[in-house]
Amino acid sequence: MEFLRPTTWAEALAAKADQPDAVPLQGGTDVMVEINFSVRRPPALLDLTAVPELATWSRDGDRYRIGAAVPYSTIIAELGGALPGLAQAARTVGSPQIRNRGSVGGNLGAASPAGDSHPPLLAAGAAVEVESRERGLRTIPAEEFYLGVKRSALLPDELIKAVRVERAAGPQYFAKVGTRNAMVIAVCSFAVALHPGERRVGTGLGSAAPTPRRALEAEEFLAAELDWSAPLEPALLARFGELCASAAAPIDDVRGTADYRRHAIAVLARRTLTWAWQDHLERRAA
Amino acid sequence: MRVTFTVNGREETAEDVWEGESLLYVLRERLGLPGSKNACEQGECGSCTVYLDDAPVCACLVAAGQAQGRRVRTVEGLAERGLDPVQEAFVESGAVQCGFCTPGLVVQAHDLLERVERPSDAEIREALAGNLCRCTGYEKILDAVKLAAERKAAAR
Ligand SMILES: Cc1cc2nc3c(=O)[nH]c(=O)nc-3n(C[C@H](O)[C@H](O)[C@H](O)COP(=O)(O)OP(=O)(O)OC[C@H]3O[C@@H](n4cnc5c(N)ncnc54)[C@H](O)[C@@H]3O)c2cc1C
Ligand code: FES
Ligand code: FES
Questions:
Q1: CA–centroid distance for B143 within its chain
Q2: ipTM greater than 0.90, yes or no?
């Protein structure tokens, strides 16, 4: 095995172009488990933690750009106000030690349907910046990034550079079902983001289908039916839950059955929308 | 490959490191620092917790090569001028039974007390959520962290 340690982004892209089967390594919280258990023996590890710009975030007005290797602990400490959905999801990842290392870029690279970053990125309408030496930079909307279980739109010679997320224009919530409050892979998860300016509600489902996905019908339903100045109607809330559950295509596994997951998605959808709506009405009243 | 980094204030070099090797393996097997324990090698138990620069991490999930040029502080490094108050409090509170989880808990609790002077029970539980103990039932560990917090605050 080789250990490649570029110190600039250009060197990193060159390394990946020359050796597309090199496995990128950031926090190692997915990769090192596989190496320790001999699940993976790649010809090379491409350590990206010495590339400074991947470890920082920046903003340009309301547009936030989070470097691929920024750890969850930084997102929690510094971005909770601007990106509440993503920060809430970050708080539920693993343990403090895992959050000090694990990153959104690594979560995207792993592209697990259970990854906690994905639902809030989908709900917020985030985009993933990827780059290769040969073809340069391209920006992939989050909803086009996930292609299958642990498969993404990232090509073999590309690296994830950053995620781009707009500052939350309205309330955002993330909720996750698991057996305890720490160290759990989601049985299922759900994120909601209100976009009051566009009279739109964004959604994201996790661990409920082969890929993280939006509940598009549920979003369209709310766009058509929601009265943005009134309390939520119980019938509307119930229908929203049903439509979110029907967007799921879950499986039975050790963590839960498909039926349970569909049920739980409906509950989480109603619950998070209720929280978000309460905040929304309070902000209107203020 | 060769990896050079600072461990507990001293620069150390490990030779013939396998590229997929963890920082935990290098510390224990190559640098003679068996304080950090190897229990799960998958980030689940926290018994390998060490500081990497200023953040506590699972050494089993850090590739040795990623530590190149960085600072590592292990449980041994907390005791360089006598036991740290956290270590003393663990002993006095009966928070140690078999001791396998102790080094990781000590480092993690040390970090908490560096950041929060008087943590609440909820904060302590949250900070230690990634450290498993199969013996104590955790109550004595909570007592130890609170005792260490009091002593540290009194010494300030
Ligand atoms: C104990 C434990 C608990 C966990 N709990 C959770 C949890 O609650 N929720 C959750 O979502 N996840 C959890 N995880 C999984 C993991 O922590 C996350 O997926 C994390 O986001 C991975 O980030 P990383 O930087 O450590 O990735 P790494 O392990 O470094 O990489 C992960 C994948 O992404 C690829 N990759 C990394 N960086 C790039 C890049 N810049 N460009 C292209 N590809 C790249 C790697 O090659 C690899 O395939 C847990 C893991 C452990 C060990
Ligand atoms: S040995 Fe590293 S977390 Fe268990
Ligand atoms: S004292 Fe035995 S595992 Fe904690």
A1: 18
A2: yes
Same domain, B91 and B59: no
Contact list in B for residue A41 (CB cut-off 8 A) is 20
Give the residue from B50, B57, B70, B125 with the most A CB atoms within 10 Å of its CB, the best one to mutate.
B57
* Token pair for B102: 């102790």
Q: Closest-CA residue in chain B for A42?
A: B20
CATH number assigned to the domain with residue range A2-166, chosen from the 4 options 2.60.210.10, 3.20.20.210, 3.10.530.10, 3.30.465.10: 3.30.465.10
Cα B129 to Cα A35, A74, B70, distances in angstroms: 24, 18, 26
- Domain hosting B37: range is 3-78
Q: Measure the CA–CA gap between A47 and A77, rounded to whole angstroms.
A: 25
Are B67 and B3 in contact by the 8 Å Cβ rule? The answer is: yes
Q: What is the pLDDT of residue A12?
A: 98
* Domain chopping of chain A, boundaries: 2-166, 172-285
Distances (CA, A) of B154 to B93, B113, B151: 18, 13, 5
pTM for this predicted structure? 0.97
Judgement on whether residues B54 and B103 belong to the same structural domain of the protein: no
